[in-house]
Automatic annotation (TrEMBL):
GO biological process: cobalamin biosynthetic process
The entry's keywords: Cobalamin biosynthesis, Glutamine amidotransferase
Family: Belongs to the CobB/CobQ family. CobQ subfamily.
The species this protein was found in: Actinomadura rayongensis
All copies of domain CobQ/CobB/MinD/ParA nucleotide binding, residue ranges: 5-228
InterPro entries the record matches: Class_I_gatase-like, CobQ/CobB/MinD/ParA_Nub-bd_dom, CobQ_GATase1, CobQ_N, CobQ_synth, GATase_3, P-loop_NTPase
PANTHER family per UniProt: COBYRIC ACID SYNTHASE, DETHIOBIOTIN SYNTHETASE
Gene, per the UniProt record: cobQ
Database matches in Gene3D superfamilies: 3.40.50.880, P-loop containing nucleotide triphosphate hydrolases
HAMAP family for the chain: CobQ
Pathway: Cofactor biosynthesis; adenosylcobalamin biosynthesis
Repeat in keyword set: no
Name listed for the protein in its UniProt record: Cobyric acid synthase
Length: 500
């Protein structure tokens, strides 16, 4: 079996990443060597590969689903927004520029070559490459410079499946409209649809599926049922708006309440996924002082704009609440950008270019931003347990006080630049025990929860979704043979006609 396919979506968060991961796991189970690919990803959730390259967390997770080592060419272009108008451009795992949307256009020709070469390299090394689009392929204002959706599909002659989220409503209009807005040459590669997050009786959906096929000439290849708890390495903060799984029953006498500050430029919030798997830990995202009041632990997560998000924290009155907590010896954890905010001073001539600003002064530390970006996969020890993590930051922290991982602790305040530390089971349990003791809570971590095992179980569940609910015969045919010839063209508002 050999070939490629592209998974597009009617919107962001329609389920492209989940379907891509599911297809990767489904193929890997059959002994097919498979790799994920996303030409251009805009995300503040990233990961460091074994060789020190930065890629989107979703592509890292998809490589795990495929049973292969994550690599920079699986996500050759990563955009990390620092404001509403500017993003850091990461190419093949290394930052190369900080640009606005108009400046980014000047990079497109060079990046298109890099994207096409990366895809060609993967296709030469793997039997199948499962590509993921970005946003919607029907963003007609961006089509001329597109290199991740139909631009990629056209360049590499790859068939495309469009995923629609029925839970949001309007899925038939979204699927039909997506096809209708595309140029005829783009429509010729749209081979079918997948409906995601369906709840209810399938027979009630069938008349709509039949009519959609009549209108577009394309089949719906599967209807994926609603699944609670598939929060796998989301690319953007839309995932934070979705309902989170209900907390499991506590292993001890009490639930541990964790409030995570939802910064405007929150990054690597996947750090908290390991807490979601802990029975009795209730995680919520906070945007006001009242959201922090009854928390047993407040977490300041990563930020792509540390100085600006610190200012936001002060403007919202949340900084005062956090400072009050520290004085009352109530637990606070800062990770990466959140750790930097807890320091005495921050010297930033790189991201915000605001020079020296005052931190929250809750840890004996000082931060200086460097032009060079630290990308690493460190190992260490805390609470007597080994810890593996990863680092992605410009800010270098110099600290005194009691050591904590690579950072420090002062009273009930902890800080570290290490992402992913909480995924280490023994360390996570020991840290939560310390938090509970400090917070005077009768919380006991479960002794047998394995985050990695739960992750593998979830990836298997994604593979099951593909095997059980998609037309895998049709999927195989698309991968091996490409889009069927003579697919119908759907003019906006007009009758269906045949392609030439």
């Amino acid at each position: 079996m050999s070939g490629a396919i592209l998974i597009a979506g009617t919107t962001s968060d329609a389920g492209k990443s989940v379907v891509t991961a599911g297809i990767c796991r489904w193929l890997a189970r059959q002994g097919v060597s498979v790799a994920p690919f996303k030409a251009q990803n805009m995300s503040l959730n990233s990961m460091v590969t074994a060789d020190g390259a930065e890629i989107g967390r979703a592509q890292y997770m998809q490589a795990q689903a495929a049973g292969t080592e994550p690599r920079a060419i699986m996500n050759p272009v990563l955009l990390k927004p620092g404001s509403d108008r500017r993003s850091q451009v990461v190419v093949k795992g290394r930052p190369v520029a900080e640009v606005d949307a108009l400046q980014y256009g000047a990079f497109k020709d060079e990046l298109r070559t890099i994207v096409n070469d990366s895809l060609a390299e993967l296709r030469a090394q793997y039997d199948v490459v499962v590509c993921e689009g970005a946003g919607s392929p029907a963003e007609i204002n961006l089509r001329a410079g597109d290199l991740v959706n139909m631009g990629l599909a056209r360049a590499a002659d790859i068939p495309v499946i469009v995923v629609g989220d029925i839970d949001r409503g309007g899925v038939f209009a979204s699927l039909y409209g997506t096809v209708a807005l595309l140029e005829p040459e783009d429509q010729a590669l749209i081979a079918g649809f997948v409906i995601n997050k369906f709840r209810g009786a399938r027979e009630l959906l069938e008349p709509g599926l039949d009519q959609l096929k009549k209108l577009t000439g394309r089949p719906t290849l599967g209807v994926l049922p609603w699944q609670l708890g598939l929060y796998l390495d989301s690319e953007d903060t839309l995932a934070l708006e979705a309902p989170r799984p209900d907390a499991q029953a506590p292993h001890g006498e009490e639930t541990l309440r964790v409030a995570v500050v939802r910064f405007p430029r929150i990054s690597n919030f996947t750090d908290l996924d390991a807490l979601l798997c802990e029975p009795g830990v209730a995680v919520r995202y906070a945007a006001s002082p009242g959201d922090l009041a009854d928390a047993d632990l407040v977490v300041l997560p990563g930020s792509r704009a540390t100085v600006q998000d610190l200012a936001w924290l002060r403007e919202r009155g949340m900084a005062d609440e956090i400072e009050k907590r520290a004085k009352q010896n109530r637990p606070v954890l800062g990770i990466c950008g959140g750790y930097q905010m807890l320091a005495r001073t921050i010297r930033d001539d790189v991201e915000s270019k605001q020079g020296q600003v005052s931190g929250l002064n809750l840890l004996p530390a000082d931060v200086t931003f460097h032009q060079h970006k630290t990308l690493a996969r460190p190992k260490g020890e805390a609470y007597g347990h080994e810890v593996e993590a990863y680092e992605i930051h410009h800010g270098i922290v110099r600290h005194q006080g009691e050591p904590f991982l690579d950072g420090c602790r002062s009273g009930a305040v902890w800080g570290t630049t290490w992402h992913g530390a909480l995924e280490n089971d023994a360390f996570r349990r020991a840290f939560l025990e310390d938090v509970a003791k400090t917070a005077n809570r009768k919380f006991v971590p479960a002794p047998d929860v394995s985050f990695r095992a739960l992750r593998e179980k979830t990836l298997d569940k994604l593979g099951d979704l593909i095997a059980d609910h998609l037309d895998t015969t049709a999927l195989r045919s698309l991968i091996e043979e490409g889009a069927p010839k003579g697919l119908k063209i759907v003019p906006p508002g007009g009758p269906v006609t045949e392609t030439r």
